[in-house]
């Protein structure tokens, strides 16, 4: 955090230290924003407020636009109920009495309640606030007349707050970086406000979380590490993993938490689960299809470039773990994987032995805390007898968190007599299993709640809450109130709208069912494969069975008789599922005569018949799942009207030709027919309530109802419907439609104009619609459209109305050959524009109007230059220009640009001089491989970064230039100061006398390394990086460590790269330096033996120490000026040496000596101008001597002559390639 003033450090430390005493449990807001609205509301403030909310920091922002002079009592309370106050001092802040009242209250809370206060000096001088000068002094003087009694407290609050460590917007550019620093610091401070062993979520045992975090070793960013959490069921493994995940997730680029892996793999294949993990990590749908045995190369590359956090909960099979996670080198450096398991062997087998955390029972004071939080809603029991009763309850739980929670909830609000009665009951079963203790909560439920609990435990754990409620309601249960009671009893939870239940509770529910009767056919619910097969094959009848769930992967192929279900009169739930394969396991060679009409839920994977039984009329059926069935049609004869059916999934039923008119299912909401490759048409003649219709990969579908009455439809998918040539005009009546997928509709020739009436449409995909040559002219009427994807479509021109799409965020037209672009105006929200491989010859000149653009992808096009207006794209961070082989000119680019890819831009010869300077002053990752060497030479000649980019308070500021050169030689260049031809490390002391010591102010470090693996080395060195670990020791003993590296350009050649380190010479004077070189190949395991030779060259401003000693600049020497002039020429070389040994320097592309002499001329100019500056700078007399003035004028005259000569060379075409625009 940038300090606002030199006097702020003490205030800062006191504020931070005192924050530990804040009790965050009773605070309503995380942060309170104090600001002057007229100054910053619509700009800086709105971005800061949005960034805080994105970080899940609950922030209060006063929306009152008409502030008077008196602050409201409610607002004062809001300040009191905030953990952090952020005060934004702007130019007119102190002129507002309202703001000053806020500030006085904030300062009072900081003093009395130890509230954290963080000032931001926005476009104002902190000194003006601290000393009440400038505008702040004027404001205080103005208030003295009207608010005499308040001015003293206001002044005290202004000066006191201004002396707290904060941020000065003038020192931190751009604003996005300032906001990022503020938000990160607020989040860090909030994370330290929970010192107790519990938090507001009822979590006890924060020390266990910290032990896991110590095993993760987050400060190590080089390795990939897996940590196991091992312990018995119910001991808290998942809770700890969840808490760790939430605490550290923001430190990673991508995160993924997979709960209940063992259970999930019972529902689907490992391949499906792995694909979902990759989709979550890579952010969105994965269009790069892997196979079960091999990952797509794009996925591998993407994972290697990310620092990821993955949590796999409840893994019971090491093979599954290995398959889901893969090799550790699959992920980027610093990635972490957390695995919870009941089986320690699982963790040992996957080489996680060193990093296993065993979760033990909670210790006595923790169990008392956890139990009290649920039984008394506080951290300890009431004094007296209740403490004794609580200790007796705790003794029965044996420190198992789940048992403590459930018993605490069951006893909450009950009197002493009820507690004693409960304890007497418990005393009769001192050695019973924990599940029997949990049973006591179940016994307190009514009949309706028990049925709901047993259904969830046996069938619906992990399912969608709303869908389960619909099914349970149709079964005659009152799901809304019943589920609410189960939540209150801690018998289940809801996470992400899914029903969750602990394994112990689930097993308890199944045990309750098993105790109903010794004979399985007389129980209410069946899930054991052997029991179910015996009942169905022997036709014993099962009048008591209400629900069946059979995992088909656990049985052999079985034949059933036509009358197998005739004696299941009460059957309401039937689920035959096969998570592992699509093999038909249940055969009906003689057909099926009967299915119970009482069914509410029918789920039958790989149903083996061509239709359902003709007499099957399930009037109460809510969900029908028949994925991968052999169905040709649902019913051979007249289809019944299913008035309660809400969900139908017939996906991958390859033989399905038709389905009944959808008017038969008036309440149908979700229809999944994906992969029904024989389906020809869909028909409907009634208004429906459908929300999702998925017809993807219905490759024979050629007809869709001309009149669509699905007024609630949200998502419609036709992707892969290669026979669909037209869409009905009634499509425009789908007023709620948000997603329309037309990917690979290769016969589609046009979109109906009515599509422009879809005011809710957010996502439109016409990828690979190769015969679709145009979009409706009124496309701009799609006022909600956020993403338009037209990759490899036949689109030749974008309509001008596209500029009316005010909400458009992503526009992708990759591979649209010959695409013509309209002027780009009005796309205020567009943050990603991708036009790769379109053959575009000209980019619209008003590109700069795209103020929200963060990513611009233009590779593979034919334009020669980029509009200079691109500088106005103030949020652009990524620019991709690779393979633009006609590109000749790069203008000045936005200062916020972080990634520039111009690989293979073979004609690129010209760059703006301001671009070069911007390149010096930013952390820009550039890839200019296969570009003109003239560009590379210019970028080598960069000078020192400007002062505003250097942090005066820090020990050092490090700038990286991730650009490398390849020299066609195998020796370290002679000009390198320090070399090593043997070994992988290099160290030396910097104690040489002035003026040639590097002990003060390092400016640049050049590195070179020769990568030479052995001939028989079979390792894959594609995308290998060469890295140097730098370690500097100061005279004070302090140590500074950093890394610098580059991509390997060519094996057996010398790679050159450089970094800049600006050291604070008053705080950090280098005494010793050491460098360790190694390579990081695809395996992500550093190897040093392949680095054969290397060198380090230090370029320092050794005159700064003399400047510090003598303020009148006497220490500047003529030799120093000459050396500095040399350094500001070609960075890696000196011209005389280059002439004698041209093979050692990257000048081999300069064939004509004329051009090199022009560069010598520029060097001469540089030296002469530097000499003039030196003479002026060293003139410490009050009056210059006449001889000195004459000499300076003579030098200026010579420089002008040389400039004139230089211009004449340019006119004759001798220096064109070196022109700096």
From TrEMBL:
InterPro entries assigned to the protein according to its UniProt record, in alphabetical order: Apaf_helical (IPR042197), Disease_R_plants (IPR044974), Leu-rich_rpt (IPR001611), Leu-rich_rpt_3 (IPR011713), Leu-rich_rpt_typical-subtyp (IPR003591), LRR_dom_sf (IPR032675), NB-ARC (IPR002182), P-loop_NTPase (IPR027417)
Question: Which ranges carry the TIR domain?
Answer: 27-190
**Where along the chain is composition biased (Low complexity)?**
1-21
Q: Where is this region: Disordered?
A: 1-23
Instruction: Give the PROSITE patterns listed for this entry.
Output: LRR (PS51450), TIR (PS50104)
Residue ranges of the TM segments: 1158-1177, 1189-1209
Alphabetic keyword roster: Leucine-rich repeat, Membrane, Repeat, Transmembrane, Transmembrane helix
One Pfam family, short name please?
NB-ARC
Is-annotated flag, keyword Repeat? yes
The name of this protein is: TIR domain-containing protein
The species is: Hevea brasiliensis (Para rubber tree)
Lineage from the top down? Eukaryota, Viridiplantae, Streptophyta, Embryophyta, Tracheophyta
């Amino acid at each position: 955090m940038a300090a606002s003033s030199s006097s702020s450090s003490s205030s800062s430390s006191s504020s931070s230290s005192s924050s530990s005493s804040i009790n965050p449990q009773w605070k309503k807001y995380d942060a309170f924003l104090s600001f002057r609205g007229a100054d910053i509301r619509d700009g800086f403030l709105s971005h800061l407020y949005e960034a805080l909310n994105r970080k899940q920091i609950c922030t209060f922002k006063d929306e009152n636009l008409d502030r008077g002079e008196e602050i409201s009592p409610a607002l004062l309370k809001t300040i009191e109920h905030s953990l952090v106050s952020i005060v934004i001092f702007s130019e007119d802040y102190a002129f507002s009495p309202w703001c000053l009242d806020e500030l006085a209250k904030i300062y009072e809370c900081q003093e009395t309640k130890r509230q954290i206060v963080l000032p931001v000096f926005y476009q104002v001088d902190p000194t003006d606030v601290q000393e009440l000068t400038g505008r702040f002094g004027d404001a205080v003087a103005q208030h003295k007349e009207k608010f005499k009694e308040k001015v003293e407290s206001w002044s005290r609050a202004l000066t006191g707050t201004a002396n707290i460590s904060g941020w000065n917007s003038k020192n931190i550019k751009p604003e996005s970086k300032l906001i990022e620093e503020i938000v990160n610091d607020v989040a860090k401070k909030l994370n330290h406000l929970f010192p107790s062993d519990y938090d507001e979520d009822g979590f006890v045992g924060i020390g266990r979380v910290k032990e896991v975090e110590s095993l993760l070793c987050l400060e190590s960013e080089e390795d990939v590490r897996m940590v196991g959490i091992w312990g018995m069921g119910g001991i808290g493994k998942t809770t700890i993993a969840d808490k760790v995940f939430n605490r550290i997730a923001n430190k990673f680029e991508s995160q993924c938490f997979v709960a209940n892996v063992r259970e999930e793999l019972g529902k689907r294949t490992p391949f499906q689960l792995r694909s979902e993990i990759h989709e979550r990590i890579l952010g969105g749908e994965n269009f790069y299809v892997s196979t079960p045995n091999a990952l797509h190369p794009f996925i591998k590359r993407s994972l290697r470039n990310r620092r990821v956090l993955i949590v796999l909960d409840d893994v019971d099979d090491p093979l599954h773990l290995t398959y889901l996670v893969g090799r550790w080198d699959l992920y980027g450096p610093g990635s972490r994987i957390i695995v919870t398991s009941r089986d320690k062997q699982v963790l040992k087998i996957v080489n996680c032995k060193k990093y296993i955390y065993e979760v033990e029972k909670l210790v006595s004071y923790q169990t008392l805390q956890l139990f009290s939080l649920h039984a008394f809603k506080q951290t300890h029991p009431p004094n007296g007898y209740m403490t004794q009763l609580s200790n007796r309850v705790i003794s029965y739980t044996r420190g198992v968190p789940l048992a403590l929670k459930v018993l605490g909830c069951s006893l909450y609000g009950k009197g002493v007599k009820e507690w004693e009665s409960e304890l007497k009951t418990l005393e009769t079963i001192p050695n019973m299993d924990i599940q029997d203790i949990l049973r006591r909560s179940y016994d307190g439920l009514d009949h309706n709640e028990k049925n709901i609990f047993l259904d969830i435990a046996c069938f619906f754990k992990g399912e969608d809450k709303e869908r389960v409620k619909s099914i349970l309601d149709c079964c005659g249960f009152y799901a809304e109130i019943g589920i609410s009671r189960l939540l209150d009893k801690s018998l289940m939870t809801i996470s992400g709208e899914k029903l969750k239940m602990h394994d112990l509770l689930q097993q308890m529910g199944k045990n309750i069912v098993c105790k109903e009767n010794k004979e399985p056919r007389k129980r209410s619910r069946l899930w054991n494969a052997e029991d179910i097969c015996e009942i169905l094959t022997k036709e014993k009848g099962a009048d008591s069975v209400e629900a069946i769930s059979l995992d088909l992967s656990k049985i052999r192929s079985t034949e059933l008789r036509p009358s197998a279900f005739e004696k299941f009169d009460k059957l309401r739930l039937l689920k035959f599922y096969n998570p592992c394969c699509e093999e038909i396991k249940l055969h009906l060679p003689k057909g099926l005569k009967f299915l119970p009409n009482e069914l509410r839920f029918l789920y039958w994977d790989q149903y083996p018949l061509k239709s359902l039984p003709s007499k099957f009329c399930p009037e109460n059926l809510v969900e029908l799942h028949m994925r991968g069935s052999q169905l040709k049609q649902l019913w051979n004869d007249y289809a019944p009207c299913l008035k309660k059916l809400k969900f139908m999934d017939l996906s991958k039923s390859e033989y399905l030709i038709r389905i009944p008119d959808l008017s038969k299912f008036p309440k149908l909401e979700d229809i999944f027919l994906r992969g029904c490759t024989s389906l020809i048409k869909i028909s409907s003649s009634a208004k429906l309530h459908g929300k999702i219709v998925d017809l993807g990969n219905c490759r024979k579908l050629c007809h869709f109802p001309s009149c669509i009455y699905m007024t609630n439809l949200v998502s419609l998918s036709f992707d892969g419907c290669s026979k669909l040539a037209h869409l009905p005009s009634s499509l425009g009546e789908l007023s709620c439609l948000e997603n329309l997928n037309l990917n690979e509709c290769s016969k589609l020739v046009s979109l109906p104009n009515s599509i422009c009436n879809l005011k809710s449409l957010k996502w439109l995909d016409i990828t690979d619609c190769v015969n679709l040559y145009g979009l409706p002219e009124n496309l701009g009427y799609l006022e909600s459209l956020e993403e338009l994807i037209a990759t490899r479509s036949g689109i030749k021109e974008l309509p001008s109305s596209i500029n009316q799409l005010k909400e458009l965020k992503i526009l992708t037209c990759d591979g649209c050959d010959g695409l013509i672009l309209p002027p780009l105006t009005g796309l205020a929200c567009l943050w990603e524009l991708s036009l790769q491989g379109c053959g575009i010859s000209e980019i619209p000149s008003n590109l700069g109007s795209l103020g929200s653009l963060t990513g611009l992808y233009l590779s593979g096009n034919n334009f020669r230059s980029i509009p200079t207006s691109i500088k106005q794209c103030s949020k652009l961070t990524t620019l991709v220009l690779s393979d633009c082989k006609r590109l000749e000119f790069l203008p000045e680019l936005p200062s916020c640009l972080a990634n520039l890819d111009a690989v293979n831009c073979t004609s690129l010869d010209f760059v703006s001089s301001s671009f070069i300077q911007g390149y010096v002053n930013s952390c820009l990752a550039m890839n200019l491989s296969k570009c003109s060497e003239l560009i590379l030479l210019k970028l080598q000649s960069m000078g020192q970064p400007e002062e505003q980019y250097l942090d005066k308070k820090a020990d050092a500021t490090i700038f990286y230039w991730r650009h490398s050169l390849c020299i066609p030689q195998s020796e370290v260049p002679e000009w390198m100061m320090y070399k090593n031809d043997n070994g992988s490390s290099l160290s030396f002391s910097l104690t040489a006398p002035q003026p040639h010591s590097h002990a003060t102010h390092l400016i640049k470090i050049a590195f070179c390394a020769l990568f030479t693996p052995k001939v028989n080395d079979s390792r894959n060195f594609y995308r290998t990086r060469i890295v140097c670990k730098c370690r500097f020791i100061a005279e004070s003993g302090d140590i500074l460590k950093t890394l610098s590296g580059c991509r390997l350009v060519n094996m057996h050649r010398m790679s050159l790269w450089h970094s800049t380190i600006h050291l604070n010479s008053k705080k950090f004077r280098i005494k010793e330096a050491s460098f360790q070189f190694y390579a990081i190949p695809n395996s992500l395991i550093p190897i040093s033996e392949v680095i054969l030779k290397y060198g380090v060259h230090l370029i320092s401003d050794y005159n700064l120490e003399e400047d510090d000693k003598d303020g009148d600049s006497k220490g500047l020497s003529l030799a120093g000026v000459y050396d500095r002039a040399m350094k500001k020429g070609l960075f890696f070389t000196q011209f005389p040496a280059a002439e004698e040994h041209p093979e050692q320097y990257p000048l081999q592309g300069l064939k004509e000596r004329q051009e090199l002499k022009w560069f010598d001329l520029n060097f001469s100019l540089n030296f002469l101008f530097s000499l003039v500056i030196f003479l002026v700078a060293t003139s410490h007399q009050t009056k210059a001597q006449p001889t000195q003035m004459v000499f300076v004028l003579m030098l200026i005259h010579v420089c002008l002559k040389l400039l004139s000569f230089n211009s004449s060379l340019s006119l004759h075409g001798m220096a064109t390639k070196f022109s700096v625009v």
